[in-house]
């Protein structure tokens, strides 16, 4: 069957519960760092430092792991070996952060079903790697904003993905949890937007998705409707 559509997905909080795995990674890392500091180092403190560093960084040139390492170093200052320890802490963090993700229900089978009939892509502002998550084989194309000088909802990131796929925006269905980044980005280029909203939050923003789903298993029939047009 010809693949007449491109189905693209956000990663964090769309395919898997990023916040849960991040919290686990920070708990483990804070425990390691606390062995070397006279001051209490908690996940909450690490989040606060990290947030400050992200706010100070160039929004179009964020290197997530370097900022994460720097947050660990800052938490250890003024220790003379803070940088060396921060590098060790980063390895501990990465082992948990990029370990087995917590997939939302029906994600992998939905991706497999869609890939049999359509082109599929991952487009993310974060650094969640489909290879480490064990799902790289379910995507034809991967676009990570960290490798570009812009991020969603910038249309140039979507254009990069469409160029890889040789598709036009009217053939794109994009699925994501963020109204600001995913839905607005898809709407702005004339693609079909699908808001992944598993907790069924009320939409109080001016950004309106074309469709909303609470579970990934709703997606194949929705896509099939577009494919038959």
Report on the structure:
- This protein folds into two domains: 6-17 and 101-227, HAD superfamily/HAD-like (Rossmann fold, 3-Layer(aba) Sandwich), CATH 3.40.50; 18-97.
- The mean pLDDT is 95.
- It has eight helices and six strands.
- The relative contact order is 0.16.
- It has helices at residues 18-34, 43-56, 64-76, 82-97, 107-117, 155-165, 179-188, 219-227, and strands at 6-9, 119-124, 141-144, 172-176, 192-196, 211-213.
- A six-stranded parallel sheet has the order 3-2-1-4-5-6, sandwiched between helices.
- It is 44% helix and 12% strand.
- The protein has 229 residues and is an alpha/beta fold.
In short:
The chain is of the alpha/beta class and 229 residues long.
Please list the strands of the largest sheet in the order they lie side by side.
Answer: 3-2-1-4-5-6
Proper CATH architecture of the largest domain: 3-Layer(aba) Sandwich
The count of β-strands is 6
Supply the CATH superfamily name of the largest domain. HAD superfamily/HAD-like
Radius of gyration over alpha carbons? 19 Å
The averaged pLDDT comes out at 95
CATH class of the largest domain: Alpha Beta
Number of helices: 8
Q: How far apart are the first and last residues' alpha carbons, in Å?
A: 15 Å
Give the topology string: H per helix, E per strand.
EHHHHHEEHEHEEH
CATH topology of the largest domain: Rossmann fold
Largest sheet features: 6 strands, parallel
- pLDDT below 50 for ≥5 consecutive residues: which ranges? none
Strand fraction equals 5-15%
């Amino acid at each position: 069957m010809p693949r007449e559509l491109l189905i693209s997905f956000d990663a964090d909080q769309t395919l898997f519960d990023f916040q849960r795995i991040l919290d686990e990674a920070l708990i483990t890392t804070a425990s390691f760092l606390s062995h070397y500091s006279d001051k209490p180092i908690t996940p909450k403190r690490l989040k606060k430092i990290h947030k400050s560093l992200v706010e100070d960084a160039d929004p179009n040139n964020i290197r997530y792991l370097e900022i994460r390492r720097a947050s660990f170093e800052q938490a250890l200052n003024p220790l003379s070996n803070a940088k060396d320890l921060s590098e060790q802490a980063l390895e501990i963090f990465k082992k948990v952060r990029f370990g087995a993700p917590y997939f939302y229900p029906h994600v992998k089978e939905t991706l497999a079903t869609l890939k049999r009939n359509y082109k599929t892509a991952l487009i993310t502002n974060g650094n969640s790697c489909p290879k480490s998550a064990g799902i790289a084989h379910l995507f034809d194309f991967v676009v990570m904003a960290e490798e570009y000088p812009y991020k969603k909802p910038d249309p140039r990131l979507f254009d990069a993905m469409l160029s890889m796929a040789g598709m036009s925006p009217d053939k794109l269905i994009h699925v994501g949890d963020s109204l600001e980044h995913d839905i607005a980005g898809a709407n702005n280029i004339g693609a079909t937007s699908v808001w992944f909203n598993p907790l069924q939050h009320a939409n109080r923003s001016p950004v309106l998705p074309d469709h909303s789903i609470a579970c990934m298993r709703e997606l194949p029939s929705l896509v099939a409707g577009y494919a038959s047009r």
